[in-house]
Amino acid sequence: MELEIDIEEPWPEGRWEVLASRAAEAAAAVAPELANKRLSASLLFTSDGEIHELNRDWRQRDKPTNVLSFPMLERQGLLELGHTGPPELLGDIALAHETCAREALEKGVSLEAHASHLIVHGLLHLAGYDHEISPADADAMETLEIKALAICGIADPYGDRDMEKGKQEGDAR
């Protein structure tokens, strides 16, 4: 998959293109439908203000968020896409710097590790995965994210999920 990357203020200088390419390769390794060479996606590193506007205008949610994904292909179309033919735009992803930086600090991880996670997360959304459908879908998506991040040498961002589930189950008893 080819990524078109645009990095705006307030993202600091860094190797964001390399990081994004590694995250995309890892996502394609765990979700083979993303490995189609015909696919491209745009990735915008931007501000909370821009994400807030996009979230309000496209999702009717009047607040910033960490990552937004705008798929251009339906899941079935992606799965049926042949390996020959013209390029196909998978979709667009946007990451909000201030929210990403705050979340990384709260999680005790680097901004680069958290951004990698969110890029993988966004690409999986573009491929039709959706954690909001059901707990089973959320678990499946998280499992793919964990595997992709491991390829990048990044620790499981959901490392406490089994403990949290156990606590919730214990609380429900």
* Secondary-structure element pattern, one letter each: EHEHEHEHHHH
Question: Segments where pLDDT lies below 50 for 5+ residues?
Answer: 162-173
Q: In DSSP terms, counting alpha (H) and pi (I) runs of 4 or more, how many helices?
A: 7
Share of helical residues? 40-55%
| N-to-C span | 47 Å
* Lateral strand order in the biggest sheet: 1-2-4-3
Q: Which CATH architecture would you pick?
A: 3-Layer(aba) Sandwich
The global form is globular
Cofactor: Zn(2+)
Function: Single strand-specific metallo-endoribonuclease involved in late-stage 70S ribosome quality control and in maturation of the 3' terminus of the 16S rRNA.
Keywords: Cytoplasm, Endonuclease, Hydrolase, Metal-binding, Nuclease, Ribosome biogenesis, rRNA processing, Zinc
Family: Belongs to the endoribonuclease YbeY family.
Give an overview in words.
The chain has a four-stranded mixed beta sheet with strand order 1-2-4-3, with helices on both faces. It contains seven helices and four strands; from the N terminus they run βαβαβαβαααα. With about 170 residues, it is α/β, with parallel strands linked by helices. Helix 1 (about 15-30) packs across helix 5 (about 110-125) and helix 4 (about 95-105) packs across helix 5. It has helices spanning about 15-30, 50-60, 75-80, 95-105, 110-125, 135-150, 160-170, and strands at about 1-5, 40-45, 65-70, 90-95. Mean pLDDT is about 90; it is low at about 160-173. It has a single domain (about 1-170), classed as Collagenase (Catalytic Domain) (3-Layer(aba) Sandwich), CATH 3.40.390. Its main location: cytoplasm. InterPro entries: MetalPrtase_cat_dom_sf_prd, YbeY, YbeY_CS. Its EC number is 3.1.-.-. Belongs to the endoribonuclease YbeY family.
